[in-house]
Amino acid sequence: MTADAVIDMSQQTLYLIALIASPMLLSALAIGLLIGMFQAATSINEQTLSFIPKLAILLVSILIAGPWMLELLVSFTRRLYLNIPSMIG
Q1: Which of 52, 64, 12 lies closest to 28 in space, CA to CA?
Q2: 79: closest CA among 4, 13, 7?
Q3: Per-residue pLDDT tens over the stretch 23-80
């Protein structure tokens, strides 16, 4: 296995991780920003106020983007298994 193949596979893996994590991270970021602005506007300093909405939006984002994320992961795994013979020899 050449070093270029290892680097290419590593880059593809990191790109896939970023793609899979982005719907959850961006939705949690957006709801956290909205709740933070609400807390700043109303002077509510409750730390646990953002936990339940973030949890709810994460569940919704997983329900919406879950099939897409699973399809990405399955296709990457299939490509990886099909490329094993060329990586070994």
Answers
A1: 52
A2: 13
A3: 999 999 999 999 999 988 998 888 888 889 999 999 999 999 999 999 999 999 999 8
**How big is the chain, counted in residues?**
89
Q: Which of 38, 64, 61 is nearest to 49 (CA)?
A: 38
How many Cα atoms within 13 Å fall on the side-chain side of residue 26?
Answer: 8
HSE, CB side, 13 Å, CA atoms: give it for residue 22: 9
The rounded distance, in Å, linking the Cα atoms of 89 and 87 is: 6
Tokens coding 82: 């099909």
Spatial separation of the C-alpha atoms in residues 89 and 80, rounded to whole Å = 15
Q: What is d(CA 62, CA 27) in angstroms, rounded to the nearest whole number?
A: 10
